[in-house]
């Protein structure tokens, strides 16, 4: 009887493997970058994926079965920018791999607020763009010195623009999946993830998953 049970277990496992053969793995290391009225999502491709679905919404309990405002199918590759968003509102995103065999689990949830660029930085960028146009019109040898002066001005204004943007916006926090070895349950995540995120110079978001190997903790990491 024991041998029969073992054989039945092996047979059922074989059927499960057949059912899921060829289904792509979920994307990993999902990150988000805020823009004016949009958010750009990037991810590591899931093995076997031919394309991706994006699920997004304002519900922090978002998942691929419900609690999302919008599903965007047919995405071909990372990154993808979701537009028509409202600045200052927190949005939650999930990426799912798909191919002709089926679809993966969803990635870890990532949250981000779209934000309008600093006014001073925008004005400086417009000035830099004008200088680039002027630079491109100066082609003769007699204009070599003027070209060099414009080039140096562009370099200087670019550094000023960066400093202005950092002063206006402050450091950006980005959601990132960080490898955490193996996590068996939520109690273990509560003990492991805070240290994992701290080692990545970030803080734990409360998100984790063991669907992928190794398990990952969702961390808020400050971009420098």
Structural features, described:
With 224 residues, the chain is α+β, with helices and mostly antiparallel strands. It folds into 3 domains: 1-116, Immunoglobulin-like, CATH 2.60.40.10; 119-169; 171-224, Dna Ligase, domain 1 (2-Layer Sandwich), CATH 3.30.1490.230. It is 35% helix and 31% strand. It has helices at residues 2-20, 119-137, 144-169, 186-199; strands at 28-35, 38-44, 51-57, 70-75, 80-82, 91-99, 102-106, 110-112, 173-179, 202-209, 216-222. The strands form 3 sheets. Strands 3, 4, 6, 7 and 8 form a 5-stranded antiparallel beta sheet that branches. A hairpin with a 2-residue loop joins strand 1 and strand 2. Helix 2 (119-137) packs antiparallel against helix 3. The protein is elongated. It starts with a helix and ends with a strand.
Jot down its keywords:
224 residues; alpha+beta; Immunoglobulin-like; Dna Ligase, domain 1; 3 domains; 5-stranded antiparallel sheet; 3-stranded antiparallel sheet; 4 helices; 11 strands; elongated
Describe the secondary structure blueprint for this structure.
Layout (H helix, E strand, L loop, with lengths): L1 H19 L7 E8 L2 E7 L6 E7 L12 E6 L4 E3 L8 E9 L2 E5 L3 E3 L6 H19 L6 H26 L3 E7 L6 H14 L2 E8 L6 E7 L2
Helix pairs in contact: 2-3
